[in-house]
Design goal:
alpha+beta; 6-stranded antiparallel sheet
Amino acid sequence: MLYLDDLTVGDRFESEPYEMTEAAIIAFARDYDPQPFHVDPDAAQDTFFQGLAASGWHTAAITMRLMVQSVPFANGAIGAGGDLRWPEPTRPGDRLRLVTTIEDIIPNRSKPGRARVVALCQTLNQHDAIKQEFRPNLMAWKRGVDPAA
């Protein structure tokens, strides 16, 4: 588990790959983002995406899973906002991996046992194409500090 004491600006973490399947794209979209370019491979051909594309929220959910697995913050990966973009769609067959780089650590003035950690989280496919870029503000605590206090 990673505490604030363990983190330094420039630290880099990489996840194991996760393969995106057509079935998973369609199943997620049917439940959460039922648009033709996410649920119907044939109809998707005549859309902006010109083929089946995963919902950005599906890519975000996988990114969260990969972050929790590869950057195991003690007390959890607790977000406090951030910037999110999807430069290009995630497709069936993409093998996603997450590369997380710590960009900044900003101590909390009123609560010295914690800080805001700014990370750059890039979700890449097997060709190193950026499928999602997320710059979250995460909370981190020093060892021995009770996060509930």
